[in-house]
Amino acid sequence: MTGATTAAARTPVQEHGALRVQGNRIVDQHGKHVVLRGMSLFWSQWQGKYYNRAVVRTLAKDWHADVVRAAMGVHSGGYLERPAAEMRKVEKVIDAAIAEGIYVIVDWHAHDPEPKAAADFFARIARNYGRHPNIIYETYNEPLPKHGWAAVLKPYHNQVIASIRAADPDNLIVAGTRSWSQDVDEAAADPLADPNTAYTLHFYAGTHRQPLRDKADRAMKLGAALFVTEWGSTDANGNGNVDVAETRRWFDFMEKNKLSYLNWSIADKNESSAALLPGASPSGKWPDNMISQSGKLTRDQLRRMNTTRKGN
């Protein structure tokens, strides 16, 4: 076996190892800037059928994703009402990502804060999985505009981060920012103390354009490391046309600035942002006729950029 073949066969986690924040970028175990590209699953309580090993394997092997996101739904029939059932779904995704050698974002998918429940949830994840460099903690998905950074979000993150660090002092944390994770410049101006925490930036190409990229630029100039844990090719409500031109502008921006990014979402919901069409198998290996326009746009980008996944 040639050296080139051996290198190509390495998984993303074997290649990059533990991730960390260095200045306003995320770097790997070698100190090299790293860009992860992948897919987010939909709210766990509503599309839990895709929370399984076969789907994660399809994303890793066929789509060439090097990161997946398990979106733990908190309210509306989610974790607060069914903690054991929702936890099992997320753990299946974590176990599958570890087996495939890719990264996994464990996301507290909520709009309103639940600091005690979130701290307990992440403490369990950190105790059970914190030894694995695959794990990335996303402590709060999309805080609403009414939740101020200094008064609500910063104390919330500090409480949850402390619960993680008690068991896992090392793995990367990504902290949600105000206004559906768009006010990254506000967080950058008053940063969290944890040295291995980046900040969540979300966008939907049909709604969020150059002004949001300008906010991201301001945040990075203030020294913040950003991570796009969720982006969509459509309007922010998940519908509307797939805005290919604006999506490509975002691709260029993220690649230029070394920002990791995950598309919303692996779901067969009847909306434009869903990567799959209604009735797509919960067992992965989707044929082209079950993948939406947005899904194909994203899959093509992952295959093109994540070249080391080819042939694995």
From TrEMBL:
GO BP field? polysaccharide catabolic process
**What Gene3D superfamilies does this protein's entry cite?**
Glycosidases (3.20.20.80)
Q: Which InterPro entries does this UniProt record tie to the protein?
A: GH (IPR017853), Glyco_hydro_5 (IPR001547), Glyco_hydro_5_CS (IPR018087)
| Stretch forming the signal peptide | none
Keyword Heme found: no
Q: Does the keyword Hydrolase apply?
A: yes
What does the sequence similarity comment in the record state about its family? Belongs to the glycosyl hydrolase 5 (cellulase A) family.
* UniProt cross-references to PANTHER family, sorted A to Z: ENDO-BETA-1,4-GLUCANASE A, GLYCOSIDE HYDROLASE FAMILY 5 DOMAIN-CONTAINING PROTEIN
Q: Protein name, please?
A: Glycoside hydrolase family 5 protein
Q: What is the lineage of its organism?
A: Bacteria, Pseudomonadati, Pseudomonadota, Alphaproteobacteria, Sphingomonadales
